[in-house]
Write a structure and sequence with these properties.
With 271 residues, the protein is of the alpha/beta class. It has 12 helices and 8 strands. It has a 6-stranded mixed sheet with strand order 3-2-1-4-7-6, with helices on both faces. The protein has a two-stranded antiparallel ribbon with strand order 5-8. Helix 2 links the parallel strand 2 (33-38) and strand 3 (57-60). The longest helix is centred in the middle third of the chain and has 20 residues, at 144-163.
């Protein structure tokens, strides 16, 4: 059986999303594992909350101390430079934002991205955004052994550049996505071609977020999920969560964030 892990990195500010990230994964893919890398110590209130969640996860605190930086863009770039040995115990990895509520899909997230890798003959699944400068999305899937075989030299080079503050990108939007695009371009895999985008959407037939982007809803309102392709397919799971005891305990502990999820529930009930 293929082993997949879900990897995310967060600074102190974004730890508030961790209980929801783990809760959704436990509901959607209970046989998977999450590897969480925090730039600082885990907040005690967050620790108490995630103790409520039955799911396999490992949290590493005070990571990347050699970078001496809590800049969110640097933290996001570090997700592509993580070579922790725990990752190597898995066959595949999904690397993405901590503010995602990943939902169950059929075919599964794993099967969708494996299919894309088989089509492109690449050890990763992602797409090229249409905007300039060139960048991929910030949600990245990899075949672990093949990815690190192809990328390790560039990971070492880019990690050194980032630590020394030698990374200069032309646009402040999607810095970590530009960073990933450039890393792959400089590797033996070569420049990501626009054609991977077409095949990506032949395989990933719903949202590339594979669920609910909580932070996006905070910024743009619940209407943001209406623009996500296939968002209504998550309706059954979202409504079941609304009646789940752990969901309500988390909502009580974090009323500010939970109100956005409750707005999603209301949207699903009405659509």
């Amino acid at each position: 059986m293929d082993k997949i892990c879900f990897i995310t990195i967060a600074n102190k500010q974004y730890q508030i999303y961790l209980p929801w990230y783990l809760y959704f994964l436990g509901q959607s893919y209970p046989n998977s594992t999450a590897l969480i890398y925090l730039s600082e110590s885990l907040d005690n209130n967050i620790r108490k909350a995630i103790d409520l969640i039955q799911y396999d996860y490992k949290i590493k605190e005070n990571c990347f101390q050699d970078f001496h930086c809590n800049n969110p863009n640097v933290i996001k770039c570090l997700r592509w430079l993580n070579i922790d040995e725990d990752i190597m115990q898995f066959d595949y990895a999904h690397i993405g934002d901590i503010d995602l509520g990943i939902c169950k899909e059929e075919p599964s997230l794993l099967e969708q991205h494996k299919k894309h890798c088989n089509i492109t003959k690449l050890p990763y699944s992602n797409f090229v955004r249409p905007q300039l400068p060139p960048r991929l999305s910030g949600v990245h899937f990899i075949k672990i052994d093949e990815w690190f075989d192809a990328m390790m030299d560039q990971i070492v080079i880019y990690r050194d550049r980032l630590e020394k503050g030698q990374v200069c990108l032309p646009n402040p939007v999607g810095v970590n996505e530009q960073f990933l695009f450039n890393m792959i371009t400089d590797s033996k895999l070569g420049k990501p071609h626009e054609s991977i985008t077409k095949s990506y959407y032949q395989c990933v037939n719903k949202s590339h977020h594979h669920g609910i982007h909580i932070r996006l809803i905070e910024i743009s309102g619940v209407q943001a999920i209406a623009r996500e392709v296939g968002c209504v397919c998550y309706k059954e799971q979202i409504l079941l969560m609304a009646n789940d005891q752990v969901f309500h305990k988390l909502a009580t502990l974090f009323p500010h964030k939970s109100r956005y999820l409750k707005s999603v529930i209301k949207f699903m009930e009405e659509n």
